[in-house]
Write a structure and sequence with these properties.
This is DUF2180 family protein. By secondary structure, the chain is mainly beta. It has one domain (1-58). It is built from no helices and 4 strands. The strands form 2 sheets. Strands 1-2 form a two-stranded antiparallel sheet. The protein has a two-stranded antiparallel ribbon with strand order 3-4. A hairpin with a 6-residue loop joins strand 1 (12-13) and strand 2 (20-21). It is elongated. The N and C termini lie far apart (37 Å).
Length: 71
């Protein structure tokens, strides 16, 4: 796989969109893996990876998107 930006050999792929990125263009940030609601504490807790590879071009949406067709 080649880097999306410069066509050098990619060292990783964006966790959000899958674009290949080399070591010069890779960015790092949090990625939410899972959200659990605790019955005893009555609050949501998240499992997050702190340094997931990101390309910096894609823009993950900040809010969830309703999908009533899956209910």
């Amino acid at each position: 796989m080649l880097c999306w930006f410069c066509a050098k050999a990619a060292r990783g792929s964006c966790r959000f969109c899958g674009r290949g990125v080399c070591e010069d263009h890779a960015r790092f940030g949090p990625y939410l893996l899972q959200v659990n609601r605790s019955e005893s504490r009555r609050r949501a807790e998240a499992l997050v990876v702190e340094d997931a590879v990101q390309c910096g071009t894609c823009r993950p949406r900040p809010q969830p998107i309703p999908m009533p067709e899956l209910d």
